[in-house]
Amino acid sequence: MNALTLWFHRMGSPPTFYAFAERWRPWFLWSGLLLAVFALTWGLFFTPADYLQGESYRILYIHVPSAWMGQFVFAVMAVSGFVALVWRIKLAEIVSLASAPIGATFTAVALATGSLWGRPTWGTYWVWDARLTSTLILLFLYFGVIGLSRAIEDRRKAARAAALLAIVGLVNIPIIQYSVYWWNTLHQPSSVKLLRGDTTIDPSMLWPLLLMAVATKLYYAYSLLSRAQVMVLEQESGKDWVRRLAGAPAND
Amino acid sequence: MNPARRRRIWMILLVLLGASVATALALTALNQNIQHFFSPSDIAQGKAPVERTFRLGGLVEEGSIERVGEGLTVRFVVTDRFRLQPAEYTGILPDLFREGQSVVAVGRLRDGVFVADEVLAKHDENYMPAEVADAIARAKTRQASESAAAGGATHPPAPKNGEAPSY
Amino acid sequence: MEPATFSMPHWPFVAASYVIFAALIVADLVTTATARRRVLRDLRGRLTRTARREAT
Fold first, then answer.
1. B78 and B9, same structural domain?
2. Which residue, among A142, A233, A236, would best test binding to C if mutated, counting the most C CBs under 10 Å from its CB?
3. Partners of residue C27 in chain A, C-beta under 8 Å
C-alpha cells in the first residue's frame, strides 16, 4: 500500500479526519484570505486600465476565478460522488455534499459579476447565449444537488442520490467550457490558456488573476473542511470521541 | 476488485454515457437555436431567418461608420471578412462600438439593409494596457508603410484557408 | 463625425462586483464558523439533559 492510499484509509476514520480538519482549517482560511486581499488590491490599484474596456475590466479578477471555481467544485463534487457510489465511503459522501453550497456560491458570484461587467461593456446585463445559459444551468444543477440531498430523510441515501445527479450534471462542464467555440456567443472565448501558452491577457494584468485562482481554492479547502467537520459531528453524534469533544464525560 | 463494485462502476458509466449521448443529440438538433447570431455569410447562404427578427454579428468594417443627418441614425457595415452586410441603427450605441470591433445587432432585413433595434458590443479575449495597444498599432502601421514602400500589397491579410474568422 | 455612444462611469459596476463577492464570502464564513459551534452546543445540551435524567 503506498503512502497516498494509506492516508486515504486513515482519513476514513472520523476522529482522525476531524483532527486533521481542525489542524489545517485555519491555515487554509488565513492564507486564502490574505492572498485574496493582496491579489485584489493589486488588481484594483496597481494594474493598468484596459485600452478598450477602461476600468470595468477589473471585474475580471472576481469574475474569472469564481467561474473557474464553479466548474472546479462541480468536478470535485462529481468525482467524490463517484467514489461514494462505488466504494460507499462515508467521507466521500460528505465531501460531495459539503462542496455543493460552496460551488453554488462561486457560480452565483460569477453570474452576478459577469452581468455587472456586461452592462458597461456589451450594453446589456444579460443575453441568452450558450455560455451564459449553460452557466445558469450549472447554478440550477447545484440547487438540484442541494435540494435532492435535503429532500431525502436518510443521510446516506440522500448523499448517493445527490452524487448521481452530480455525475450526470458533469456533462454540462465541457459544454460551458467549449460553448464559446462550438457556437456563436456574445461571450468572448477564453483569455487564459496556460497549457497552450497563448494567453491573451497582458502579463501586467495577469498575475492578480492567477493569485486569485489560488486564493479561491485555498478558501474552498477551508470551507469544505469546516462543512465536512459539521457533517462528521452529526453523523457520529453518539460516539465517545464526539462526547468528549462536546465537553461531556464519556459513557464508560 | 469485488464484483458488486465493478457492477456499480459500469452502471455509473452507462448512466453518464446515456446522459452525454442524449445531451449531444439535443444540442445538435437545436444547433440553429443555440447560435446567438448569424454572420453576413449566413445571410448570403440563406441560413438566417430573414423574414423575422434575428441577430446579426460580426466586425464593424473599417471606415464604414457614417452618421445620417443630424439625428441619431448611424449606418455601418458588418463583415465576417468574407461578406459585407450594410446595417442601420437609430439610437445610442454602446461605448465599445468602434470600427474594427465586434458587434451583435438585433433587427431585421429591409431591402438588403439590416435595420437594428438594438446594438450590443462584443468584446474579444484580448486584455492589454493602452501603451501596449498603441505599440501594436504603431508596429502594424510601420509594417504596412514598409511593405507599401517595397511595392508590396497593402490589402488586409485574408483569413487562412479553412480557418474561421476570429471575431 | 463620431456616432453617439453612451459612456457610463465604470466604478459603480466594479465596486458592486467586489462588494457582492466580499458579502458572499463573509456569509459563507459566518455559516461555516457558526455551524460547528451550534452542533457542538446542541450536542452538549443533549448530553447534559440525558445525564440529568439518568441521575434522577
1. no
2. A233
3. 105
Over residues A7-56, the pLDDT tens digits come to: 888 888 899 999 999 999 999 999 999 999 999 999 999 999 998 888 99
Residue C5: predicted pLDDT = 75
Same domain for B48 and B111, yes or no, is: yes
Over residues B30-73, the pLDDT tens digits come to 988 889 999 999 999 988 888 889 999 999 999 999 988 888 89
Q: Give B93's contacts in chain A (Cβ within 8 Å).
A: 123
Would C20 be classed as within a structural domain?
A: no
Residue A70's φ and ψ, nearest 5 degrees, are -55, -40
The answer on B115 and B47 residing in a single domain is yes
pLDDT at A142 > cutoff 90: yes
B17 and B42 co-located in one domain: no
Nearest to A116 among C16, C47, C48 (CB): C16
Which chain C residues are within 8 Å of B67, Cβ to Cβ? Answer: 1, 3
Residue with cell 484596459: A50
Please give the single-letter amino acid code of residue A12.
G
Query: Measured between CA atoms, how close is A126 to chain B, in angstroms?
Result: 11
Task: State yes or no: pLDDT of A251 exceeds 60.
Answer: no
**Domain ranges, ordered by start, for chain A:** 24-45+57-185+202-243
- Distance between the two ends of chain A, CA-based, in angstroms? 35
Q: Does one domain contain both B58 and B109? A: yes
* Res C45: pLDDT: 87
Total domains, chain B: 2
The shortest C-alpha distance from A180 to chain C (Å) reads 23
Is residue C21 assigned to a domain?
A: no
Q: What is the CA radius of gyration of chain B?
A: 23
Q: What's residue B160's pLDDT? A: 42
Closest CA to A113 of A150, A74, A58: A58
Burial of A238 per CB tally in 10 Å (0-12, 13-18, 19+): exposed
For residue B9, the enclosing domain spans 3-33
Which of A133, A137, A160 has the alpha carbon at shortest distance from A149? A160
| Domain assignment of residue B76, yes or no | yes
Look at A50 and B128 and tell me if their CB atoms are within 8 Å. Answer: yes
Predicted confidence (pLDDT) at residue C23 exceeds the cutoff of 80:
yes
Q: Which residues of B touch C8 (CB under 8 A)?
A: 95
Distance from CA of C24 to the nearest CA of A (A): 7
For residue C32, give its domain range: 28-56
**3 state SS of B57:** strand
Considering the domain architecture, whether residues B11 and B86 belong to the same structural domain is answered as no
- Based on the structure, what is the number of domains in chain C? 1
With CA atoms as reference, the chain A residue closest to C49 would be A248
